[in-house]
Amino acid sequence: MLTGIYGLLSASFFVVLDAVDVAFTEAAVGAGISGLLMLAAITMTGRSEAPKRHKPLLALLVVFITGGMLIYGTLDMPYFGSFDAPVHQHVAPRYINDSMQEVGVPNIVTSVLGSYRAFDTLGEVAVIFTAGIGVLSLLSLPLRRRSSKLDESSSENSSNSSQKDQMHEQHMVLRIVSKVLIPFILLFALYVQFHGDFGPGGGFQAGVIFAAAIILYAMLFGLDTARRVFNQSIIQLIAAIGLLLYASVGVVSLFNGGNFLDYNVLAADPIAGQHIGILLIELGVGFTVTAVMIIIFFNFAGRREAQQQATERNSPELNVTQANSTEQKGGE
Amino acid sequence: MLLGLYNYWIVVLLMMIGFYIVIAHGNLIKKLVGLTIFQTSVFIFYISMGNVDSGSAPILAEGVARYSNPLPHVLILTAIVVGIATTALGLALVVRIKESYGSIEEDEIQIQDQLTEDKTSC
Which one, A209, A219, A303, B33, has least CB within 10 Å? Predict the structure, then answer.
């Protein structure tokens, strides 16, 4: 909850600082997904911290010394918002003055992201993809103790899931509202994806928004339903396709006689080539980001359900006693 | 005119909060939360450096003379998404640690490691 508020706050902070693209991303990531993942992890690991055995004084001392040194270091920095700061003197003027002629995209952030620093962005998409694979390999393994019992208790399993479905059905208002909302969120994500050349937006933001819509669906209609709609293996395929699409644009421009990820050679007119290149790589980025976010969420949520089922099965007596006690309470 | 540096001080403050959480807490999830705060402070550092007085968002339009610096925006835009992906990876690791050690407190995990090492050496 607090991370959500924190994310939203820093997003509005970025708007004030004229960084609309960044604000967009932070609003979707910080306010939506990061809080959700933190909550999921906390429910899986227990929410209480062990009482501290060591005194935090030493840590506090280190922190204060480091902070003091950093603040001393800022004394030589240029003032906030000053136009003649060294940052604004070297690379940025070229982007601001020439990107319209060279790339032909009004949103400078997109042109830098997609064209000038395309190689960097490719690396970052690869990092996201790798993180997705990491989460997949860490969390999609079956729980060790559970795997043998899985077949015996399949009937129990189904009864569990039916209970869960009932639980989801209880939130009537939420379900109907989100049913209306989700198509619009998806549409908005597509708009952000393809309008990134002209306004704030692009593959990263669109991917996160798209994933947020699907996560909302999974939260309200149950993980099993969502898994039926969005097949896991297809999503993994999409993650790989996005990265491959990005890299293959670079390879195609190599074959057309340019440098890697040099879009000028993609079409007869350099500006048209730039447009095609940016559109394609943004599409690739969008694919990968969406798929990786969905993979991460599905694995966290699936892990949690698996853990819950395992604990339920390990302690059936406990469940029975709990049920009895609730019945007694109802009787009273 | 030292007040013109206040953006850096906010960054340092946030960074130190994050740093303190990372080194003072033994709980792995809290460490990750601290790292996230640390990360955000770096984001704010970059973005506030890219800001220009009376500049506008870096989307070319007529009648706008000054734009804020687009380069930090690009770097941070991608860094945010990469950050959430890596945080998720860290959380996944914590979940697995919890499953195999039954605890996410740093010192308890170290004690368990020590015990197993002693057993293997004997």
Answer: A219
Q: Return phi, psi of residue A85, to 5°.
A: -65, 150
The confidence score (pLDDT) of residue A322 equals 47
Cβ contact B5–A77 (<8 Å): yes
pLDDT in tens, A108-141: 888 888 888 888 888 999 999 999 999 888 887 7
Q: What is the pLDDT of residue A3?
A: 63
> What residues of chain A lie within 8 A of the CB of B78, using their CB?
113, 120-121, 124, 204
Q: Which CATH class is domain B1-51+66-121?
A: mainly alpha
Using only the alpha carbons of chain A, give its radius of gyration.
25
Residue-level pLDDT at B28: 84
pLDDT beyond 80 at A278: yes
Structure tokens at A57: 């004084």
Query: In chain B, which residue's Cα lies nearest the Cα of A292?
Result: B85
Residue of A nearest to B5 (CA): A79
**CA A328, CA A322: separation in Å to the nearest integer?**
10
Whether B94 and A45 lie within 8 Å, measured CB to CB:
yes
* Cα distance between residue B86 and residue A74, in whole Å: 29
Q: Which of A25, A109, A138 sits opposite B70 (nearest CB)?
A: A109
What is the pLDDT, as a whole number, of residue A129? 92
b vs e for B38-47, b when ≥16 Cβ sit within 10 Å of the residue's Cβ?
A: bbbbbbbbbb
Chain-chain contact of B85 with A128 (C-beta, under 8 angstroms): yes
CB atoms within 10 A of CB A152: 10
Report whether A310 contacts A232 (CB < 8 A). no
pLDDT at A127 (0 to 100) = 92
Give contacts of A93 with chain B, Cβ < 8 Å. Answer: none
pLDDT value at residue A328 = 47
The structure's pTM equals 0.80
**Residue from the list A79, A113, A143 with its beta carbon closest to the beta carbon of B5:** A79
Map residue A31 onto helix, strand or coil.
Answer: helix
Identify the helix (H) or strand (E) that includes residue A291: helix A270-314
ipTM reported for the complex surpasses 0.95: no
Phi, psi (degrees; rounded to nearest 5) at B53: -55, 135
**R_g of chain B computed on alpha carbons:** 21
